[in-house]
């Protein structure tokens, strides 16, 4: 931005060029963002007239233990997803970043889940994990023949696993790109010093990847607040309410129970959490950047 | 590039881990394809991981007879329209953001950056209200417009980052030749950013093609169903006919898979370049 502004000076293009994109974005994202706050203070069944509700929806949402349950589930999914996906995609990214025919083939195959829709993935895993005809029939092993999605204790972990299956490829791609930007001379110097693979990984690869780690983590954490399609098709929030995470709770309140006001309260909580997380993480990132400059 | 390090010893641990994840990735895919080739009767009795004795395409026929092609064409219309709108308006915005002067250009860029953090779920209720008020509910346009709106921020940011790398002298010399902004866009920017445009187009296309929430909430009738929603409804329609449901899954993936095979290099290298900074 700095250079562009200085060079073009008075002859820059007219702002009207950005108008169509801004208009689209305003009508379907910015205005609705304000609208959802207003809607949270209205009673609306989705079809009929709206009436003023004041803070009644907020009061009932905050009194409802279901809200805290959904929020807690979302936090669990977020933390577990990060813990599962980060090490896997980091290591895979490092593995695939190196040249070599078999690594290239691996990279191609790892990418497959990115092509499938959440609905397709959910349906595939639902069949695969079914106790009557899935992989429980394939191996005689006792521990594989569980009702994976039917048990309240297990379902959440299975959901986290399927989410990882879907999203690890994308983050692997990020890490692969990150590793390829590390100057090779660093490794050559380490080699001369006699550092082994493990020490090179810990002292060169990991520190050099810190921005990639921050980028990937931000996308992962903020993204995990919005997992919906996969969980909706896979478990619909069940068994009981064992996987009824916040976005699902919102959808069911709004579009199944026709309580749009209440659902809007949950949507506002979702936006708040997402923005707080994004801002917090970008603070963290810029803090990291500052200290890097001093350290260098 | 990092390949040379410690290359004298094979990375056994890494290789094993990589193969394990490969197995985890491929097992469900293998299971889905295999099961889709089973007859409904042979389904419960056979080992799900062994090839069927008599593979059959009956499930595929059943799915194709149940309006699959209509859902496919709906998905194609929605995806192409969304990508066309998104890329064209985003390219204009990105050009303005990079070449424009003053505070407004910077502010515009910040708006799109902020837009990256707005979750789609959070605004779905007001969007539903807007769409019904505009009498667009249950039309393909109801999916296209908000999908484009949500694809725009990332598209602008990626295109702008790419445009920033174009040397300013190129623009200057064209301006000295008397070229206006439209001519610079067409004869300078467009050819230069083509790789980036293809990358974001593919990425946006993939997102829209697989999109579920907007179609779920903003359409209703089978006529307007797109593929992911169709899969979901096949689930209810075929109930116990798992091979048919999984055949639908395979069919819904084939078009993307074909595209991926054709444009893999471009897609993956573009994605890694676009995000890896």
Automatic annotation (TrEMBL), chain B:
Domain (ABC transmembrane type-1): residue spans on this chain: 72-263
Gene3D superfamilies recorded: MetI-like (1.10.3720.10)
Chief location category: membrane
Entries under InterPro entries matching the protein: MetI-like, MetI-like_sf
Membrane-traversing stretches: 12-33, 76-98, 110-131, 143-163, 184-203, 242-262
UniProt topology in membrane: Multi-pass membrane protein
A GO CC term assigned to this protein in UniProt: plasma membrane
Keywords assigned: Cell membrane, Membrane, Transmembrane, Transmembrane helix, Transport
The organism's place on the tree of life at top rank: Bacteria
Pfam families: BPD_transp_1
Subcellular location: Cell membrane
This protein's record includes keyword Cell division: no
GO BP annotations, alphabetical order: transmembrane transport
SUPFAM superfamilies: MetI-like
Keyword tRNA processing: no
Family named by the database record: Belongs to the binding-protein-dependent transport system permease family.
Protein name: Raffinose/stachyose/melibiose transport system permease protein
């Amino acid at each position: 931005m700095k250079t562009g502004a200085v060079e073009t000076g008075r002859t820059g293009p007219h702002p009207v060029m950005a108008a169509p994109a801004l208009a689209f974005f305003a009508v379907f994202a910015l205005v609705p963002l304000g609208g959802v706050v207003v809607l949270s203070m209205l009673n609306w069944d989705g079809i009929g007239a709206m009436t003023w509700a004041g803070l009644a929806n907020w009061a009932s949402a905050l009194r409802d233990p279901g809200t805290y349950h959904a929020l807690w589930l979302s936090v669990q999914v977020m933390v577990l997803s990060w813990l599962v996906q980060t090490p896997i995609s980091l290591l895979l990214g490092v593995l695939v970043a190196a040249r070599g025919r078999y690594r290239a083939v691996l990279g191609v195959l790892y990418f497959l889940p990115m092509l499938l829709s959440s609905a397709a993935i959910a349906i595939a895993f639902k069949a695969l994990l079914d106790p009557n005809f899935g992989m429980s029939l394939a191996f005689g092993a006792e521990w594989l023949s569980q009702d994976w999605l039917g048990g309240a204790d297990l379902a959440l972990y299975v959901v986290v696993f399927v989410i990882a299956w879907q999203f690890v490829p994308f983050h692997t791609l990020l890490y692969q790109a990150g590793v390829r930007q590390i100057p090779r001379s660093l490794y050559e110097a380490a080699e001369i010093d006699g550092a082994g693979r493990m020490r090179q990984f810990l002292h060169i690869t990991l520190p050099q990847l810190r921005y990639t780690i921050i980028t990937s983590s931000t996308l992962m954490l903020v993204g995990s607040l919005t997992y919906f399609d996969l969980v909706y098709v896979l478990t619909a929030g069940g068994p009981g309410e064992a996987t009824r995470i916040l976005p699902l709770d919102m959808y069911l309140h709004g579009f199944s129970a026709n309580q749009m006001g209440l659902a809007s309260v949950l949507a506002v909580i979702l936006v708040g959490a997402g923005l707080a997380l994004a801002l917090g993480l970008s603070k963290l990132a810029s803090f990291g950047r500052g200290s890097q400059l001093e350290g260098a | 590039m990092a390949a040379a390090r410690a290359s004298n010893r094979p990375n056994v641990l890494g290789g094993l881990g990589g193969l394990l994840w490969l197995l985890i990735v491929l097992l469900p895919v293998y299971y889905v394809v295999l099961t889709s080739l089973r007859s409904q009767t042979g389904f419960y009795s056979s080992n799900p991981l062994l090839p069927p004795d008599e593979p059959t395409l009956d499930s595929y026929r059943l799915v194709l007879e149940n309006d699959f092609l209509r859902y496919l064409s709906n998905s194609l219309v929605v995806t192409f329209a969304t990508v066309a709108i998104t890329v064209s308006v985003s390219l204009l915005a990105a050009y303005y953001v990079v070449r424009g002067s003053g505070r407004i250009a910077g502010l515009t860029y910040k708006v799109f950056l902020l837009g990256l953090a707005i979750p789609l779920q959070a605004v779905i209720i007001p969007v539903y209200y807007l769409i019904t008020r505009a009498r667009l509910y249950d039309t393909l346009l109801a999916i296209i417009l908000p999908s484009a709106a949500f694809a725009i921020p990332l598209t602008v940011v990626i295109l702008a980052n790419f445009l920033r790398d174009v040397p300013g002298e190129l623009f200057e010399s064209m301006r000295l030749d008397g070229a206006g902004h439209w001519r610079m866009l067409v004869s300078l920017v467009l050819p230069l950013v083509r790789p980036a445009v293809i990358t974001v187009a593919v990425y946006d296309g993939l997102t829209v093609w697989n999109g579920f929430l907007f179609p779920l909430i903003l359409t209703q009738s089978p006529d307007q169903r797109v593929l992911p929603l169709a899969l979901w409804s096949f689930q209810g329609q075929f109930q116990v006919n798992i091979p048919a449901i999984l055949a639908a899954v395979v069919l819904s993936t084939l078009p993307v898979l074909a595209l991926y095979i054709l444009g893999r290099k471009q897609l993956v290298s573009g994605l890694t370049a676009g995000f890896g900074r």
